[in-house]
## 1
Amino acid sequence: MSRNTAKPLKIKFKKNGKPYKGWFLAWSILSYLFTLILAIILTAVIVLSGSYANLITSFAGQTNSEITNPDSSATYFASDYSSDAERKEANREIGTDIMREGVTLLQNDDATLPLKSGARLSVFGQGSVDLIHGGGGAGSIDVTNADTLVDSLKEDGFSVNPTLTDFYETGAGKDYRRTLPGETGVGSFAVNEVPVSVYTDEVKNSFADYGDAAIVVIGRSGSESSDLPIGKLESGVEYLQLDPDELDMINMACENFDKVVVLLNTQNPVELGPLADTGVGAVAWVGAFGETGANAIGEILNGTINPSGHLVDTFAYDLDSAPSVINTGDYTIANSSVTSGTKYMVYAEGIYVGYRYYETRYEDAVLKQGNVGDFDYGKLVQYPFGYGLSYTDFSWSDFAMREAGDSYEFTTTVTNTGDVAGKDVVQLYMQSPYTDYDKANGIEKPAVELVGYAKTDLLDPGEKQTVTVTVDKESMKAYDADGEGTYIVDAGDYYFTAGTDAHNALNNVLAAKGKTTDDGMDADGNAALTSQVTIAERDATTYATAVATGAAIENQFDDVDIRTYDDSFTYLSRSDWTGTWPTTYADGSWTAPDEFVDALEIDTTPGSDATSVTTEGTEGPSKTVEMIGKDYDDEGWMQLVERMSVADIDSLVRNGGYTTNAIESIALPGTIDKDGPAGISSTLVGGASGTGFPPEVVIAATWNDELAERFGNAIGEDSLALGVAGWYGPAANIHRSPYGGRAFEYFSEDPMLSGQLTAKIIATSQDKGVIPFLKHYVVNDQETNRMGGAMFANEQSVRDIYLKPFEMAIRDADCMGLMTSMNRIGARWSGGHKGLMTNVTRGEWGFKGVAITDQTSFPNFGYSDLREGLAAGTDLWLNSSSTLWKLSDAEMTPAVQADFQRAAKNVVYAIANSNAMNTMGADSGVKHITPIWQKWLWGIEAVVGLVIIGLLFLTTRGVIRRHRWRKWRKAGSPPSNEMSNPLPLQGGVQ
């Protein structure tokens, strides 16, 4: 057969036994489709790897810059350890120590605890093998190397029922595990305890062999982006109530064991009333364990460690009795269509958060004032704020007060009157007078408020220690928004008292007023533990100027008060409890005034009136290293910034997501920045993790400043070892509601306890060169609608409750960094509120550092506007996109550039005083480099590109040749230049 008359090779693809003629069409379509998909993926990869290169670099644990000519002698911050192994072991021990002192004993009937040495235990609850080590989201930790409860108990001499543990790990109990939403809010809350009906006879029979005691683990946790649910779950009870299956399990334990101990592996208060009907002997709140906290539990159960923790929240029989719960949840602005501006929240309870509500209404009930109504403290509060038991007893004596300049010093002698060694906590509370002036001007006063505390050393039986608590006179001030428009000190009697908890303290004050149980008190107080200070005249001048800066203090948050838009609104007041009791504002759907809806729109008006700025200047220092240790007000900082080009400043300020960019022109090294509050973590953005510690709520329960300092130092050590200069922590929002989803990240319902511990942590972490970004600034006390939600609160509560921990950290520890919140305060995003970011933070408190936004890497954070934030005083955008927030040349006016330069100064100042400067000597510089992942990606992109080209070529050539063969067959003669087999694999064509 001649070449020109040959038929195409037949390779017959068949379908149902017959040749399939459409295979080539299908193959061509699929080839083009596959090519298109590859092209789309390649384009997306190129775009994303370009736009989010810094984030990917951080995730890969790499860098995009390096120090040139490093100077090994230039060590501005050094480790205390000689090796990584030594550091890691020391940090793990700190985590265990935090748990040792944070565990809070709530009940110990008939000396259930401690257990005898070598006791044989049965450990109940699916949570016993699925411990809560931390929370979800930014506060999560790497638990790869976390210690287990069962192993801890064994190491401390206990024998643990293996049959029961295996039941939970590999038996029928393995199918039951709690669930909760992830960091994006997707998912649901469920307890999912193992029903009693699932326990096999083999498991039940094992109880007898391990019957010295039952340890029951109850777990609850939360996560970023989701608050804990308030309503009933499918189980028929609320999430913070004991689930029916849990109660059945507890009752089963009580029926089979003489000693039953409940461990509350929870991060929020839980309603524990039903335990009274079960026969449980001991209850201890343990919080979350971190990596190593479980190691402390065996020591506490066997008495090696005497628990000394105290509650940082009120445990109510009915958590819904807190007035904040009435306005907690999802509420809508009905007439707003502003992007991320359709939700709101009103803090209608004012200052009456946590114990400030329960204790104040209790006092008014005893004093028969304030229209208390139907209120029974004993039926509402199970364990008051500050409560905690010990295996030993303490007595307090010789309480005394001494005036010492701008403060008062209080001393108390603590004696261990029991049989074992232990630590005690002296809590110092103050009661301010509640005057007619206060009532007329809307100033609220709690019956008691914590103003100081001290934890004793470990005291042996019979040993005593005199502890001193110093209280600044400034603690006596209260904010008067409607009257003087500044801080005042009221005229009248101020009571200071030492108490074992908030309720005990209040009873002491009532005793000093001559009240007893005959007047309705639930216990007699001790007047000997109380001192009194009388102020003759109301003082509206002493604290009308800022102690830190001398600046005049005046209202800054009128626009955050709902009364600006609704003058009929009344906050909860102790002058009329029943008459001012909160309701859900506008029934949850508010038709807001037009002026408020209009105010929700972004304000891009430049904050500066500059008409020209200097860039790429030549004056002053040329390298950042020259400014190390220089005063914040030194002109050299701005001269250094003026050497930067507009592109440099934009790169530094606008792209601060988990890194800051190196700036070659001023030899500023780049930084790596990471979450989270419980330890430098890789869980969100990759790279290496440091130690995962018990979270802030457990640190707070220690009431131990020294432990807080050790924790801060440990963060600093991990910072040095991991090369992570910026730490997105600690977190100091308030436990406003028992249902806060990130309560574990925050310390307490009390601002003073939160602030003092925060300041201790920040001081020691900064001693190691950390830039701590204290968060979330401010009024970010719930997760629901935290992105853009408009939060309303009156100025007194904003200043005296929610800003207090941040103020203490800045004034007492010179905190170097802040992270703004995602929510609005009033109509304005917090980072765009000049009253907050500049007037108060810098003007009143003297903040010298860098303020970063919360996450702004994606378009749905579009209300965190760059120009508005810069004008207000925010400095750095937690933005990992190289394109997002990019301003055009026309938008980059001199006024905006001036704001950029001010922000850049603060960023440079913070970095210059951080451990990122280690090895930066006088001759050192920085240069940008291509990270390894990007080089690999370029190679992959080249290969994929060639594959795309090849597929397109082969498929297109096949289509063309097939088309030409069809023309030949139709014409009856082949083209002279064609092969007889145009497509070697075109079988089935007849």
## 2
Amino acid sequence: MQTAFLKLVAADIQQRFGNDLSEIAIVFNNKRPITYLKKHLADVYGQAIWSPQFFTIQEFFKLSTNDAEASPLGQFFQLFKIHNELLAAEGKEPETLEEFYPIAEIILSDFGQLDYDLVPIDQIYMELYDNTKIDIAFQHLTQEQQGFIRQFWQSFSIAGHSGVQERFLQLWKRLPILYTRFKETLKAAGQTNYPTIYRDLVESKATLQDFTSSFKQILFVGFNALNRAEAKLFRQWQEEGKALFYFDADSYYLDDNMQEAGLFIRRNIFQTGLVNALGSSPNIIGNRTSTVNLYASTGKISQTKLLYDILEKQNNKEQTSAILLADENLLVPLLQSLPDVNPNITTGYPLTQSPIYGILDLWMEVHLEISQLKKNKISYQTIETFINHPLTQVSLEDKLQIQKEIADKQLFEIALEELHFKSALPQFFVPIVHAAQLIPSLITIVDDLLYSISAHERIRQIDNNLLIETKKTLNQLLLGFETVAPLSISFQIGLIKKAISPINSAIEGNPLEGIQIMGLLESRCLNFDNVYILGANEGILPKTSNSPTFIPNSLRRAYGLPILENQDALSAYLFYRHFQYSEGIHIFYNGLVDESSTGEESRFIKQLEFESKFNFERKIQQQTIQFADKTTEIIIEKQGEVWGKMYQDFIVDQKRISATALTTYLQSPLQFFLKHIANIKEPPSISQEFEMNKLGTVIHNVMEKIFLPFKDEKDFTPTNILQQHFNQIESFVVREIGFQYQVELNSTSDLNSLQRIMLKIACEYIKMYLEYDIANYKAFRIIELENDTDYTLPFPISVNGKEEQVTLYGIIDRVDEVVTHDDRIISRIVDYKTGGDSVIFREIDQVFAPNTENKALIQTLFYAYVFEQKTGRKQLEPHLYVARKMREEGTLFNGKEGVLTADFLAFQKENFVGFLSNILSEIFNPEIPFRHNPDVTIYPSDPYTLFYREASKWVENEESV
């Protein structure tokens, strides 16, 4: 590696100043390089010396005043108060905090920028107010600068002033007065801000104007982009012989005016006239032919996975290394992907990416929902999010109980008074009565979190820091809110989120050991043997947007204020300087095109690849293409423990086999194994759409209630008597829905939205069933009704050449005798269906087959067979009441061969018995394993989908890792 910049600085300091550095001030843009320069000074001197004094630029300038620094929130509330005073003086209505807040941030930002760059406040804002004064007020500007200003004004006023424009014109006229009053108010309170400190120093208004006299020499190290105040002060101190400047630059971009990376240092040296204490810059980049490793990942997060593999292979602890985040949103994924490399992170762990923000945000959303909708209920998703959050510490027992109750009762909303479980945040769901209670209540939540964290054996310092900073910010907001009119909960929450979002906590380690993690801006002045730059995408490096401002680009150019091109130049410099020193350069970018990425590397990379002698070695992460492979299919052999359980359950213990179990096997033998042998049950859940099985249960039970009074009647009952029950259907359905969801429902007003839909559908289906009976039959007699206990039947099968028995089990919905309009009496077995079943089939051979064409027919013949064998009754016609289709298709099964009645029915019943015997023998044939039928349609609601659709992918992925 080339000699590091700070090593060169340390050597020059020794040469210039000898051993006494006690009256030397060394100033950096940020704190990070101070530790490194101290080490290099110790290495250069090799003995004890009087240390220089180290400062950041803001700490150094702060020596010029005794005033305290005003907090950002404090400045905002001061600005709001003064602005409303000015409105009152103009005879206008005061603005609410909600109205003023969106523009306050922009006003404060613009005030700060205008101070840093010493722009005359009155001039620039009056220019925004009236362009007729351009010729008089801006005679000192060049024609080009005046043209920029005119161009802006013409584009603004060409269409005349709307109401909004008129409001802004008045605001711009008011802003110079607002600026002056704001500064006066801060001064009277003994407060200041950094833009004011800078401007006061330049205008000789600082309380301690000669603070630099305390130092024999001031060394400014590694500065690049200077604002106008810094440039003026630096030039002044250089002329006084007080200041030296160490610029970290390379002639590759410094001497070439087309290279944007050198823009600011060229300006500092050639325009401002600052002298580089290190002399002329070498051409390091232009002469290097090293290899640069460029990695295109298949996704944003994949960059960190690629980095893991590279770091695992590079174990040279003698070399220094740094991970530079062009995209600082990659910090958390990076921390989750790092190998054991002893990281030191000063980028700061952001509150917004921590579990703490998640729980605070959930609290705010809960109380926003409660306050806006004026209700005492919250959604089940909120409850599930809360109980599953690691910081709430809800016990596993309570979690399972809550999830089961929500699923069983299908509770889409839960009343606050019904929340009874222990957690680390007992006040979380306590309603806020008055808007003024919002922040105190949130502070209570923060205190509970602090107590909960401190109760652990090992305090999590990062979480502790984040919570303490959050509490400070909330207290500042609370003080500010006390000075203004009552604010809505929604606005307070919006402001709280904005105020706490910037909070972060440094993860401190040893900055001189291990791998360093930082943003590109923090890497100023620092050099490493190996650098790994993450997020080097176009649009991120450089960024494509600037901070919001009221000052348009044309005026910014005219007054020399920062523009987007300045940001590009700074980003280019921060990127290029690592090519001066580092030997191992690894650059990662997201090569995947999606809604947040163009999939292109930064143009800085393309520029260097085209112009320099570096060898860019591109590596593209490949997404493994998975192919179907029979060796990865899930196949369950009937041997060992599997066969032992099957034999014990079904042969020895006579576990019952239902019609549903039979059709499950026909659809997927693997699912039969998972469900009926392995007993893998679907976990309790709640659906945003009501469950069809619940609807079916409600309809079956209500139909039973209607027909139950007629069971075992010896005489036939006229079907028109069913008409009298129509007015009872709705109340029956409401009570049944309440029973199914384990809630008390007395009327339709107690139903939630999905239950109302279920009520409507169930009532319509039941009426349809009854109307069908009334229209097609004169009278009926109920033989059996909803019997799920009495119909079990031993059935012989062959197992390993030996006759064994299994037990069949039938649930009989309804068996009746009906009198047709031509006075025929028909015995029927009736099955109700609410889904997409049909009475139509094409070929009976396709019904009596795996992946059966008509599952309902198999099930109904199964019920009929069990009933006939148990009771001795014969010639039962299978009827299927499919509510969606019975008006068009009827209720009798029919195919190409005919309708299942009379002799055709008797023949097919015999065929069914043979088919049943074959299938049961296959199930218990040890030579035939359980495997999924690939021809079966898989429905999204199938709880076993992942087992037989995704399992092979999981296996392949595990093998490829």
## 3
Amino acid sequence: MERSMRVVLLLIRVLTIATITFSIGLCNGIPGWPPLCKESERQALLMFKQDLEDPANRLSSWVAEEGSDCCSWIGVVCDHITGHIHELHLNNSEPYLESSFGGKINPSLLSLKHLNYLDLSNNDFWTTRIPSFFGSMTSLTHLNLGYSSFEGVIPHKLGNLSSLLYLNLISYSLKVDNLQWISGLSLLKHLDLSHVDLSKASDWLQVTNMLPSLVELDMSNCQLHQTPPLPTINFTSLVVLDLSDNSFNSLMPRWVFSIKNLVSLRLTGCDFRGPIPSISQNITSLREIDLSYNYITGQLPSSIQNMTGLTALNLGWNNFNSTIPEWLYSLNNLKSLLLSRNALRGEISSSIGNLKSLRHFDLSGNSISGPIPISLGNLSSLVELDISGNQFNGTFIEVIGKLKMLTDLDISYNSFEGEVSKVSFSNLTKLKHFIANGNSFTLKTSRDWLPPFQLESLRLDSWHLGPEWPMWLQTQTQLTDLSLSGTGISSTIPTWFWNLTFQLGYLNLSHNQLYGEIQNIVAAPVSVVDLGSNQFTGALPIVPTSLYLLDLSNSSFSGSVFHFFCDRLEEPKQLSILHLGNNLLTGKVPDCWMSWQYLRALNLENNHLTGNVPMSLGYLQTLGSLHLRNNHLYGELPNSLQNCTMLSVVDLGGNGFVGSIPIWMGKSLSSLNVLNLRSNEFEGDIPSEICCLKSLQILDLAHNKLSGTIPKCFHNLSAMADLSESFWPTMFMINSSVEASIVVTKGIEMEYTKILKFVKSMDLSCNFMHGEIPEELTDLLALQSLNLSNNCFTGRIPSKLGTMARLESLDFSMNQLDGEIPPSMTNLTFLSHLNLSYNNLTGRIPESTQLQSLDPSSFVGNELCGAPLNKNCSANGVIPPPTVEQDRGGGYRLLEDEWFYVSLGVGFFTGFWIVLGSLLVNMPWSILLSQLLNRIVLKIYHVIVEYV
């Protein structure tokens, strides 16, 4: 027995040594043992490398030297028994283009007969198609080509990879003509086609529904436009479904809530409408639901309450219009609840305290009112809380101050009020982002208060902090975002404050009473600095060349602008948006714009600048907004401005510019939304090229010396004809104080900022234009304001004027229009300002609620009758002759007065012609003088008629 045991032990030792030796042989390639790297496969990899572009030399270990073991090469994984290559991990893990592979994919990969894992993701095979020979690599179980810039049609031969378990083809450049080729991938568990163009794949749902092993399906952002009916649901294994960012524009399909084992459902941004369909009570496996950014209406569906294991529910950016149901507070496993941007109303129930697992809670942009319930303080796990843009009132700190884990708090734009003391913040030691602007809080702390937190973002706009500067700010050394606009601070900016700003990406101290001089502004690269609407004095400060936005408007900065713009010319400026308007700046517009080539918005309005607009302004080829209104500029506009082809707003009003309106404005500035040349000295005709400005929404040429007729091609101004909301590019609506325009409407100047993009107006008043108002002008159906007053227009009011149903303000006064008011004007139901006075109009004022509600002064100086005038019309619609008075003496006096004023007028004009007749020999003077005389005659005539 003992001898047998010795034999057994000896045998075990022999086998152990043999096994270890065999393993070492495999690892080290001992002669006589099977090599780890097959020579044919090594050669295949070397051929593959030859066609590959490798700018970062990531495959430096792939060498052709004898004895080099390819199983030890970077990215290569071999079977430790057979030595065959099983996996190639050639994905780019670095987020840099320089380290990406490119070039071609050599067919030598076909020699890797045992390859089951191929990852080429996050590379740059730009202009390269997915090789069709991939479909012959039938041993593959894992193929990842995501984000590698392959383009073209996905080869159908990939459907031959019957062993595939994982397929990732994420790409912005790939497309398909159908998806039938996928039907053969019966073992597929993971399919990711995100961003692939599937617009032609009408069979997408039927095909994927027949994949019995599918666990995860991602077809987000694939240009899908329909969800076909699905009579039979075969998604028995499906756990994750993502169809986000497709434009289905339909009711939400019922089948998505009938997949029994579904755990994650993401349908964000799909344009689904109507209510959420009923959800089967058997669907209890869901843990994550994201239906945000749709148009879902109605109430929150009560069937969700059966999903007690739900951890994330995102219904934000929809149109739910109910109160928050009580059952929602029973989902006590929720960690994330996002209900932002709906129409939810009512108050938060005290049952909110049941959601003790909640970490992220977003109710922003609703109509929730009332105080915050005390029970909210029980949410001890809460990290992020956003209740901004609601109607909450009362104080908040008693509750919020208990949430010790809070890092992000946004309570902005509510109706909170009251005093806030340092005690309120004593437990908020983890707070990083505190956004509370748009409330009426008063902060009461001592000058030596040391906050318990280190904030990164702080926005307290509209709080009462002043008049002293908040000294506790010097403790917040981690700030990158600070906004204290409109907080009543009345002081200078302390020197120590600029030591904090070198890391600030956003600084807003506007609308305070800050004063003194600013020598130097310190800020982080690519930052926003808004110091507008204060009381600063002195010269403009030195600013970092890396600033993105700078607003120093509405103060009392003075002196020349030369040094601000023209010093340090060797340093290219990164500034994109600059607002220096409404100051006391002097000197000429600088001529060194070649260093400011990134400017997109420039506002120098309401200063005392003089001289010409320099040619170098044409270097600003990305300029989208130019405001030089109300300065003392003169001369002709430089032709170089036609290089600024991205201009969207040009406001040059209130200067002394001369010459004709440049033809190149219509040819080169095709993106114009606003053209304001008001109150200058422009003369001549309006060039027909202006009609090419398809995006023009505001045209103001009033108070110039323009002559000629209205171009009939004005009906080509598409933006004024289109009833859609706006033709504006969103890139210029970044800062409303920069992007503001003055529009004269209803007889008054109005400044439009945030709603500027919705305004559509035309003003040609106070010029010397003549001829008839073209009927084509009535094609501008979207115009809200039209002013042609104080010109010499003749003929009738266009008969189709009533089709311009959006008109709110219409002024044709002080012209020579005749005929009747067209009956179609009764259709102008939005009209609140009308002036047709002092023309030659006759007949009855059309009867409508709108016209009769207007002031009588809108119609004086014409031969009109009917309400709202006190002149009654006869049966045929004309003014009846005056009744002869019983007292003959009175009638004689009336006749005598008439002849007196007529003879007075004749005598006056006879003398006027004798004295000034010689001037008429000069044709330009003749035109101007005749226009002036016409106006004088009309006014005197109307005075006589009114008296009679």
